Hints:
By secondary structure, this protein is mainly alpha-helical. It contains 5 helices and no strands. It folds into 2 domains: 8-70; 78-141, Histone, subunit A.
Amino acid sequence: MGLFFCTLECYDAHLPMMRHRDAWAEPTQAPSREEYEREQAAEAEREERERTTRTEREERATSMSDENDQRRIVTAKREDLPRDVLVVVSKLKAYIKASSGMNTSDGVVDVLSEHLRAVCEQAIENARKDGRKTVLDRDFKTIG
């Protein structure tokens, strides 16, 4: 809460207990009626501009969302998809070693990645059939 006093002497007289802190006072003068009315008019004008700008932005966003709804999803052709390894080889080898004590051939990684791609494609189809744009865990569970 801001306190206002008519003079610095009045400040010292009414708040003597504040001397133990870093109390200060800044002498200011209230604006004249004309200055006050000018400030109020400028503030009202600024608020009106902001309201107009906000309305224009909302209208633009609405029209853009209509355009977004009309866009179609573009995907790469199957032959253009990356053929990267889809598993962490060291983790796979460590799991097989810990599970069975066996070593793992490097050829397993490519075969397993192809299998994962096929499983992912089936999960994508399951999501598409449900009308979703997100592949969920349940899309993988239905794959036999």
